[in-house]
Structure to design on (334 residues):
């Protein structure tokens, strides 16, 4: 009798395990509405094991919310940029419907935290698109970036104890390290891709953001921009996180690391060094917008200088790049 019982249990487990695994899988749509761009991902995920199995569609559009807010006289995002942002989201959502996502969710970050009407804008977007959108705080932004990296990493080669995740957006920057059972170490800063570019224009070049949107060519202001980034990093990054940075692999996520920096260095490797950054920034600082390429040329050169300054200040010799954004974390969030 016992023999038959064991056989029945074994058979039940054999047929139920794959079924259970399959039930954990579904297609999801995620939006990351950032300060300088709006990104979308449609992916097949395993939400039980927090893994992205297949990216079905990935798209990004430059929407300059942060620059719009900088020019605002009342602290609100303008009707023009709101209309442009909604049009981009609507177009992206239409493309995503082809894949019939079961769940749709999106997050909005820095500029929507800062602007007076940011939360109302996102509520309006959510109502129009008929999906759940929310403005998240910077701590949640750091956590989603970390989850994005972990969804793609092989823990046998580079687990949580061995890395610091570094995410740079348009209006905010996060660094995050985590040991199991211990409090996470975090840096949550406002100096980022667009905000640093604007600082260079206003502080170093003495120009108005109302009339100037690009700092290029940086020219002889390069060394001053590096000094500015170095000072900021030394003052604002917490000591405990600095200690982790010295002992661990720094993993860069987001478009600044994967596209802007690597693209200007000209490497296909999923990593870059401080030495490569220094060479690239010397060359790129001489170029005007007309000599640069891409949709994000106004921030590309200052991205190099921001990252280089932080690396110099924090003793980072190399950054390993993972082709992840907040979106992996967004599509995995229940």
């Amino acid at each position: 009798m016992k023999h038959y019982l064991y056989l029945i249990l074994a058979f039940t487990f054999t047929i139920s395990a794959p079924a259970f695994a399959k039930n954990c899988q579904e297609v999801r749509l995620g939006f990351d509405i950032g300060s300088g761009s709006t990104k979308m991902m449609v992916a097949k995920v395993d939400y039980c094991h927090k893994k992205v199995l297949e990216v079905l569609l990935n798209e990004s559009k430059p929407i300059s919310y942060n620059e719009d807010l900088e020019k605002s006289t009342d602290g609100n995002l303008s009707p023009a940029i709101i209309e442009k942002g909604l049009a981009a989201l609507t177009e992206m959502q239409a493309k995503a419907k082809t894949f019939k996502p079961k769940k749709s969710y999106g997050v909005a970050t820095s500029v929507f935290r800062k602007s007076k009407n940011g939360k109302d804008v996102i509520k309006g977007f959510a109502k129009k698109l008929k999906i759940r959108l929310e403005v998240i705080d910077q701590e949640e932004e750091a956590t989603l970036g970390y989850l994005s990296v972990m969804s793609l990493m092989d823990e046998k080669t580079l687990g949580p104890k061995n890395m610091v995740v570094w995410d740079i957006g348009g209006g905010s920057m996060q660094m995050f390290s985590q040991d199991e059972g211990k409090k996470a170490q975090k840096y949550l800063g406002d100096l980022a891709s667009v905000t640093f570019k604007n600082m260079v224009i206003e502080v170093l070049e003495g120009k108005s953001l109302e009339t100037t949107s690009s700092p290029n060519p940086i020219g002889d202001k390069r060394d001053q921009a590096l000094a500015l980034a170095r000072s900021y990093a030394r003052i604002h990054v917490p000591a405990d996180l600095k200690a982790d940075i010295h002992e661990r692999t720094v993993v860069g996520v987001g478009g600044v690391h994967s596209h802007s920096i690597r693209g200007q260095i000209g490497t296909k490797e999923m990593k870059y060094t401080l030495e490569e950054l220094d060479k690239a920034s010397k060359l790129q600082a001489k170029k005007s917008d007309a000599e640069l390429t891409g949709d994000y040329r106004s921030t590309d050169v200052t991205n190099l200088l921001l990252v280089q300054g932080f690396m110099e200040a924090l003793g980072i010799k190399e950054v390993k790049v993972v082709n992840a954004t907040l979106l992996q974390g967004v599509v995995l969030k229940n």
User: Anything to note?
Assistant: The CA atoms of residues 284 and 301 lie 6 Å apart.
